[in-house]
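Help needed: design a sequence for this.
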């Protein structure tokens, strides 16, 4: 069947199946026709999350999370609507026509070309709302982490921005030639940019401007930082950064 037909089928099947789908992911406690649990979408200690088996929806009274079974799976697994439909189609043994599937696989393939490993880590990125980027394989104990060759491209940064707010560069032993374009791409994409410097024993991350001004080498100049700030799309963020960077570099005279 076509993708849209599959959506209709899955809507119906998953409505009856919501308790099963939810309880496969969190443990539910029965109370009458509904089931309750501690909400998986916010810090919840009072079981404000309810699943209504007969009505086929969930609702949390502690946060705004609510919706049908498809929505729950999508939120919990960190998948897009399309991805959720493919996942559930598999579960319900529904065949979606190959043209649709090929189109979907093509998207995944393209994303992985832009940022290797992206499709695998997609759901995790949505949950953590941030990613780490390292330029060499090593003992960087972070997740989700991407190891890239050369600098981060603008396309890759935009892909990250779809699912996360913040990017942290593991900058150990990485040259400014590699770092600068990476910072530039991430800032242009509207990400919050942080870096973990060389001398950071505990992998302490710092704001990228702090990172730049803290480098003891003369390589990173105030001019570099101002250039990078110019690429930030948000006016307010840009002016805040200008003030901050000016203060930060005042004493350094570089
Ligand atoms: Zn909640």
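Sure. Designed sequence:
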């Amino acid at each position: 069947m076509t993708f849209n037909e599959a959506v209709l089928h899955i809507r119906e099947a998953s409505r009856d199946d919501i308790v099963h789908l939810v309880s496969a992911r969190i443990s539910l406690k029965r109370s009458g026709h509904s089931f309750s649990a501690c909400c998986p979408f916010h810090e919840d200690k009072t079981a404000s999350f309810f699943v209504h088996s007969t009505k086929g929806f969930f609702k949390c009274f502690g946060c705004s999370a609510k919706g049908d079974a498809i929505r729950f799976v999508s939120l919990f697994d960190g998948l897009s609507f399309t991805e959720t439909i493919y996942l559930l189609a598999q579960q319900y043994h529904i065949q979606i026509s190959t043209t649709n599937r090929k189109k979907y696989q093509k998207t995944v393939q393209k994303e992985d070309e832009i940022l290797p490993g992206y499709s695998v880590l997609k759901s995790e990125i949505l949950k953590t709302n941030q990613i780490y980027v390292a330029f060499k394989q090593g003992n960087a104990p972070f997740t989700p982490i991407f190891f890239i060759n050369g600098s981060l491209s603008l396309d890759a940064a935009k892909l990250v921005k779809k699912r996360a707010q913040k990017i942290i560069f593991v900058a150990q032993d990485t040259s400014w030639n590699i770092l600068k374009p990476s910072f530039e791409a991430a800032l242009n994409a509207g990400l919050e940019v942080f870096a973990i410097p060389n001398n950071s024993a505990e992998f302490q991350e710092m704001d990228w401007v702090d990172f730049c001004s803290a480098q003891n080498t003369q390589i990173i100049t105030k001019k570099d930082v101002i250039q990078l700030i110019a690429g930030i799309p948000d006016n307010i963020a840009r002016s805040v950064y200008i003030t901050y960077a000016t203060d930060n570099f005042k004493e350094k005279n570089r």
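Residues 39, 41-42, 44, 49, 60, 62-63, 65 surround zinc ion (CB under 6 Å).
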